[in-house]
Design brief:
Protein name: LuxR C-terminal-related transcriptional regulator
CATH class of the largest domain: Mainly Alpha
CATH architecture of the largest domain: Alpha Horseshoe
CATH topology of the largest domain: Serine Threonine Protein Phosphatase 5, Tetratricopeptide repeat
Largest sheet: 5 strands, parallel
Number of strands: 8
Structural class: mainly alpha
Number of helices: 48
Helix content: 55-70%
Shape: flat
CATH superfamily of the largest domain: Tetratricopeptide repeat domain
Radius of gyration: 36 Å
Strand content: under 5%
């Protein structure tokens, strides 16, 4: 298969994107004579899929022998027989008759008979030598299931210096399964081992989609991804169970069964420590010793076998699949007894409480429910949100649904689930409550978080239908009815200005002391609607939000005053205000364990650093955001924007192509399309492909205006590049209209960046209309204004525009000074297109400006002559002869294109160009 088709082939093979690099490595190894690679990983993690994809992508001139070993296939030489069945007839016929008879006898007899072992070894070596000459690739799936006799025969042949070592060998699964088969390890060096890591949530979502498991919501997929630990085989089993309404598979899955088999081969002490650790989830060496006695030797063995991990004094099971398997194989009564012992172990108080809960029989326990609720509240206050949610759910499970405290426990759990972005859990919890029976304050606690969950899970239209149905349940003057009205406005797709007016009035009528969550959500929405409409970031709304937070003690992270300021300031040109606010926003979201909000905040922080020209710092922030987003099925939209801006800046064609042709969340359809067209248009503009730039950016502008997005910072600053594209293509009036829009933003808000960009566009238009002096004046003002804005890359681009205008006006000397300023800023080091344009303009200036042609000695003589010194005075000053001065001066006249010392002085100071330009 041609190399250019590899990416498409990987897509057809349904190999997740995060595994494409490993697949490429497998293909390279299979293409080498004697290539070696062992793919190791947990059962069900997807090794077979990778091997099948490899077999389809190996070149046509290679002979691929894909051997699948089955757990039910046993007996001596089973793996050898599997290999022989796949050997092509043309190769088998080339084996001498005597050797061939030995191999055929092995195949024909059941159980197999090897006859003379040495004769079989010689026959198999001869066959392997033929396979090596035929460029064979042996791919062995589930290598740990190969029988000892086969491994003892085959493994030595694949090691140099044997001729058979020329066969490319790729095997998968454990090389040392803890049983009798251990000799595959002798074939591979450490560099020839590749670990197949569990998939990310997005990778699991792709696997479930390929498996045609419809009927699952995005939040169902998120939960399956988390529960499966990135194991695709187990994820499919869990998804099938969830689609049928079960929490776990009705039958033990193949992945769990295989893992149980692995556990049963472990030494007894290791199994005991593994079970205890699995019940603890994560514990300490001291807690283990309290329950099972001395554990050092068993722990060390468990770590060596890859089933336990030790970090300091903390002990954990290495994978969720191992934990599920060891719990599956342990009777419930035994687990409860062990939990009772763990409840007395030296563990944190909250963990001991959980073990007491697990040791008790299922059913309502008011005492436990109250203790768990209190422990959850403490965990939430200190920022351990994951622990807080787990304890809260235990409290709900132990509650009597008829008790007065039950509603508070459900609301408490739903609030924490909303903070963590656990949409499915929010929906399940809210479904247990009857909204009509909730007091206004209780209704407020659940309404906003449930609305967001429904919109994310089922879409905005489904949310509107549910809100409309709920609205009919309350009287018009009921506060709960007003809450629903505000929520409908928050998610409304009507005219933006009309919605903003209605929302402002409805929010002002709400009692903030009674429904603070709804008020805060409304204020956040109002702030960004104002920003969208070009009115800037409202300090008044931020102050109102802070007042509600202070009075109510409520901190809804995603709608907080801190979030508004952090995210909104830079989109209204205020980079210096956003940076500290974003730092605090990231720190708070990390403390609360809110991965979705953390990823979003870090993505915005990365955007700010790109706009500031701090590309290396931006890349580090983006990498951190990506790590948090791995926990999510759908990455937050700002992450795509940050990826795109960084790819544009670095001119990273692969990253940009992946983003432009990839998948975006449907919850942001319009903004997603705006982003894609905006990125494509800016990319074309920075590459000076003006026709493509204009087409893409006009589409992006139309999409933005359809949503009422007037603020350039909210529509990716497409205004600037669209105006430049219009000007270069002759639409000067269209370019001036955008320039006027940018300039009006500065009038009420004093925005040097917007004003500077307006001047930059007007300078280009003036030059196109032949007004050179006005063009150069505007370009200089633009640079001065942009210098105050802090958008360093945009300042550099404006300086390059100015340099081009100076060249067009014949003022190469001043253009050179501008280019030196750009080079000193070091922006070009991170932006290849700025660097290329700087170099191109420098070459133009050098070609037009004779000063660049002068040698150092000629420059010194010319400058002295221009200062009025005679040739004899210059010779004395420079310690050279008069003849040397005359020679250097003559060369300077010729290179500068002048005839007199006066003309030379004017040319050296760029004054001659000024005069010629104004005549």
């Amino acid at each position: 298969m041609p190399a250019g088709n590899h990416e498409d082939a990987a897509g057809r093979d349904r190999v997740p994107r995060e595994r494409r690099e490993l697949l490429e490595r497998m293909v390279r190894v299979a293409g080498e004579r004697g290539g070696r690679l062992a793919i190791v990983g947990e059962p069900g993690v997807g090794k077979t899929t990778m091997l099948e994809a490899l077999a389809r992508r190996v070149r046509d001139d290679r002979t691929v022998l894909l051997i699948r070993l089955d757990e039910g296939a046993t007996g001596p030489y089973t793996a050898v027989r599997s290999l022989l069945r796949l050997v092509p007839d043309r190769v088998l016929r080339a084996v001498p008759i005597g050797y061939r008879a030995v191999l055929e006898q092995l195949l024909a007899t059941t159980p197999p008979e090897s006859g003379d072992h040495r004769m079989l070894e010689a026959a198999l070596r001869y066959l392997c030598n033929l396979l090596a000459a035929a460029h064979a690739v042996v791919v062995l799936d589930d290598a740990h299931l190969a029988d000892r006799q086969s491994v003892d025969l085959m493994a030595p042949m694949f090691r140099p210096p044997h001729e058979a070592a020329g066969i490319a060998l790729v095997v998968a699964r454990e090389l040392d399964a803890g049983g009798p088969v251990t000799s595959w390890k002798v074939v591979f060096t450490a560099a020839q081992l590749a670990f197949l890591a569990p998939l990310s949530p997005a990778g699991i979502a792709a696997v479930l989609s390929d498996a045609d498991l419809d009927g699952l919501t995005a939040t169902d997929v998120a939960e399956v991804a988390a529960q499966s630990g990135g194991n695709p085989s187990w994820a499919v089993d869990l998804a099938v169970a969830r689609r049928s309404g079960q929490d776990r598979p009705a039958t033990t899955s193949r992945a769990v069964t295989s893992t149980i088999a692995r556990i049963t081969r472990l030494p007894g002490p290791v199994q005991e420590v593994l079970l205890t650790t699995a019940l603890m989830r994560a514990g300490t060496v001291e807690a283990l010793a309290h329950v099972v006695g001395p554990t050092d030797q068993a722990l060390a063995e468990g770590v060596r076998l890859g089933v336990l991990g030790v970090k300091g004094r903390e002990v954990s099971v290495t994978t969720p699949l191992l934990r599920a398997a060891v719990l599956e194989m342990t009777p419930a009564a035994d687990r409860r007894a062990l939990h009772a012992r763990l409840a007395e172990a030296p563990l944190p108080a909250a963990h001991r409480l959980e073990h007491r809960d697990d040791a008790a029989l299922p059913g309502p326990r008011p005492d436990l429910a109250e203790e768990l609720r209190a422990a959850s509240g403490r965990a939430r206050r200190i920022g351990t949100t994951t622990d807080a949610l787990r304890l809260a759910m235990r409290s709900v499970a132990r509650s009597d649904g008829r008790s007065a405290a039950h509603v508070d426990r459900v609301l408490h759990a739903a609030e924490i689930a909303g903070t963590q972005g656990d949409v499915a859990l929010v929906l399940r919890l809210s479904a247990t409550l009857d909204p009509v029976t909730l007091a206004p304050a209780e209704f407020d606690r659940i309404a906003v978080v449930t609305a967001e969950a429904v919109a994310a899970d089922l879409g905005v239209q489904a949310l509107e239908r549910r809100l409309a149905d709920a609205h009919r349940s309350f009287a018009p003057d009921d506060v709960r009815s007003e809450v629903i009205r505000v929520l409908r406005l928050l998610w409304s797709d009507d005219d933006a200005a009309d919605v903003a007016r209605e929302l402002d009035a409805a929010t002002a009528a709400l009692p903030a002391d009674l429904v603070p969550h709804t008020v805060l959500a409304a204020l956040e929405d109002l702030a960004f609607r104002r920003l969208d409409s070009g009115l800037g970031l409202s300090s008044e709304i931020i102050a109102r939000s802070r007042a509600v937070e202070s009075a109510s003690g409520v901190l809804e992270l995603s709608t907080s005053s801190g979030a508004i300021e952090a995210v909104g300031a830079y989109q209204a040109d205020d980079l210096s205000r956003s940076r500290p606010a974003l730092t605090a926003f990231v720190r708070t979201s990390e403390l609360l364990g809110a991965h979705a909000t953390t990823a979003r905040a870090m993505a915005h922080a990365a955007i700010v650093e790109v706009l500031s020209g701090r590309v290396v710092h931006a890349a580090a922030l983006l990498a951190d955001a990506e790590r948090h987003a791995l926990r999510l099925v759908d990455a937050p939209p700002p992450l795509s924007r940050a990826r795109g801006l960084l790819a544009l800046t670095r001119n990273d064609r692969d990253a940009l192509e992946e983003l432009l042709t990839g998948w975006l969340s449907p919850v942001a359809t319009i903004r997603g399309r705006l982003l894609l067209h905006g990125l494509a248009g800016i990319d074309a503009a920075w590459s000076e492909d003006w026709a493509v730039a204009r087409a893409e950016l006009e589409t992006a502008l139309h999409l933005a205006e359809a949503k009422g997005i007037v603020e350039p910072g909210r529509r990716l600053w497409i205004d600037v590049e669209l105006a430049r594209a219009r000007a270069h293509l002759g639409d000067l009036d269209g370019a001036e209209r955008l320039a006027r829009h940018l300039a009006t933003l500065d009038e009420p808000h004093r925005r040097p960046h917007a004003y500077g960009q307006a001047l930059r566009v007007r300078a280009l238009v003036a030059m196109q209309r032949g007004d050179q002096e006005e063009s150069l004046r505007l370009a200089e003002e633009a640079v001065q204004s942009l210098r105050r804005g802090g958008f360093a890359p945009e300042l550099a681009r404006a300086q390059l525009d100015r340099a081009q205008l100076l060249v067009d006006a014949g003022r190469e000397g001043r253009a050179r000074q501008v280019l030196v300023d750009v080079a000193a800023s070091r922006i070009h080091a991170d932006d290849p297109r700025i660097a290329a344009r700087t170099l191109r303009l420098t070459e133009v200036v050098d070609a037009a400006d004779g000063r660049a042609l002068l040698t150092a000695a000629e420059t010194r003589v010319a400058q002295a002559a221009a200062a009025g010194r005679t040739n004899r005075e210059i010779a004395a000053q420079l310690f050279v002869s008069v003849r040397t001065v005359e020679t250097h001066l003559g060369n300077a006249y010729r290179k500068m294109g002048v005839r007199t010392r006066t003309q030379l002085a004017l040319a050296l100071n760029d004054l001659g160009h000024d005069e010629s330009a104004t005549r």
